[in-house]
Amino acid sequence: MTDRSWLELVDTIAQNGRLVERLNAEHRPDNAGRCRVCRVAGTSLHAAFPCKIAELAGDARAVIRSRGAARGPG
To answer: pTM for the complete prediction?
Structure first.
């Protein structure tokens, strides 16, 4: 995925704050430092955390926060 594609996806996800919060809530590390949801393709192993979905949600949350800061107080 190109940087531009990633940024476009982040921007799209950031338009739905509830989705961002849900992704952040679900894609959390377990005690072994692996995502509780994502699996490594073709295996039963959980993916290392942060998984790509957690990274995407984190970037989207940062976009939401920056938009709020750009508006200023009140």
So the answer is: 0.84
